[in-house]
Amino acid sequence: MTPTPCDLDSEKRQAALKATEFVHDGMVVGLGTGTTSKHLILALGERVRAGLTIQAVPTSHDTATLAKQSGIPLIESDNAWMIDVAIDGADQVDPALNLVKGGGGALLKEKIVAAAAKRFIVMVDHTKLVPALGGSFPLPIEVVPFGWGSTARHIEAVSGGRAVLRQRNGDVFQTEAGHVILDLHMPHIGDPAALEIELNQIPGIVETGLFIGRTSILIVGRGQGTDVTHAPKP
Fold it and tell me: At 61, which CATH number?
């Protein structure tokens, strides 16, 4: 039986509520972007109004706006953060807890915040779990607008996939940093870590939506409950 959007939204909310249990007084929290992160922010706002003391670093304008509306104090974006935990959703998660992110276009800020955090918690509904990255969901790659067509050709040569300029409502999509996104379509990504290294060597690429080896905890919403997986310690 195919889950309905309502079922999946319930799973996202369950995962977000579980994620709030890892947030404690005095923490600096990285707040992700997307539908699951909205549930997280609203839940944290309730806890803040009940007395929880935290500060947060948002990964998009939309996240910052919702956090402010929810009463969550924000840290200025140019500070040298000491983030205790970053919490975000994902578009795909493989068995090794590698991710594809960037469907919403905030991948650059999301990766900066995840890299600055002591722990990175990922919360998803069960449909985001895949045996291998790629396939049904393209890999977002943020690139500078100058020469993006040439950059796309380099990406295709390295990956063997097809790079498509993202558009929204008939216009070229631009990130908050003024870049564009190429969505890379591949049947599957056999070696995500190697692909990330190869892509990062191409001039014009700002960041990729591959999050390799960054997940500390994965929370999967399943109906009325959640599954929690901790990444093995290195």
Answer: 3.40.50.1360
- Claim to verify: residue 143 and residue 52 sit in the same structural domain: no
Residues 122 and 38 in one domain: yes
How many domains does the chain divide into?
2
pLDDT at residue 2 greater than cutoff 70 = no
Q: Which residues does the annotation mark as catalytic?
A: 110
Q: Is 175 exposed, middle or buried (0-12, 13-18, 19+ CB in 10 A)?
A: buried
DSSP string computed for 87-133: EE--SEE-TT--EE--TTS-HHHHHHHHHHEEEEEEEEEGGGB-SSS
**Mind listing the pLDDT tens digit for each residue in 124-154?**
999 999 999 999 999 999 999 999 999 999 9
Is this prediction's pTM over 0.85?
A: yes
pLDDT in tens, 147-204: 999 999 999 999 999 999 999 999 999 999 999 999 999 999 999 999 999 999 999 9
d(CA 101, CA 93): 9
Q: What distance in Å separates the CA atoms of residue 20 and residue 152, rounded to the nearest whole number? A: 39
Pure H helices in the chain: 5-20, 35-49, 61-69, 107-116, 148-159, 192-200
